[in-house]
Design brief:
The structure is a single chain. The protein is an alpha+beta fold. The protein has helices spanning about 5-10, 25-40, 70-75, 160-165, 180-195, 230-245, 255-260, and strands spanning about 60, 60-65, 85, 90, 100-115, 120-125, 135-140, 145-155, 170-175, 200-215, 215-230, 250. The strands form 2 sheets. Strands 2, 3, 4, 5, 6, 7, 8, 9, 10 and 11 form a 10-stranded mixed β-sheet that branches. It is globular, with a radius of gyration of 29 Å.
Amino acid sequence: MKPATETAKKTVAKKPPAPAKIAAPKAQSTMLAKAKESSVATDLAAWGPAPKLSSKDVVIPRILCMQAMSKPVVNGEAKFGEFRDSFGKLLGDEANPLEFIPFHHEHVFVVMREDKGQFKFHKIVPVTPENDDQEFIVEIDGADEKWYRTTNVYCLLPGEVAEGNSLPYLLSFRSSSSRAGREVYTQMYVMNRKDGIVPPGRTLTLLSEKTKNDKGTFSIMKVKVTRDSTPEEVGACLNWFKTIQSGKTRIDTSDIEAEVGETSGSAQSEAPDSGDY
């Protein structure tokens, strides 16, 4: 005869699991309404056509090579040698080189004017036959000015073209990076033309290289040809080339002092590269 305790264990029935709670009809309809609302909100068509833009609305960001004294580096938001746009977005670094498609250029002077002991951005002046021999430092109306000769290159990024949302960027080559600017110009208008290819017909890679002078370590830009551009990329470049030619864009000039090396403790060379003049 089995013990009573063992018999009791066998006769005790297990409690069935509690049934899952079913949302009330009102709660279900609320959840469905929110899901539909979220779906509509993220549908571009629901927002209607894009507004018409004027030249003051489209701002072309600059591609910046991060220096030791660049604000994002000083603030711990970026690393030395990275490529970021002037809005702060990371575009490339040593492990992920930046590909770009150059489609337009201009030779300009970036003029910095002395104000209370510091040189601040004053204006951009196109290079012309009349000012081609412009001295680097001049005194105008009682204040010193530095005229940085610069090769500006407008470009698109392949990844953004593939996504269908390309926006042009501006690459500025000056001082120690002037050689790279001349190489881009030569590729666009000499080598490409020699091969019967349009200016944006070749895609290039932008690299940064550490170098030193008596003020410290800084980074200069280098370029190399990567591949032929695709018809889609060339078409996107042509569209933006026409837009820029029509004057419907403007360049972001924020914090340009750091870019040209006019910040305290900058190791970038103040004197223009000998190949510029």
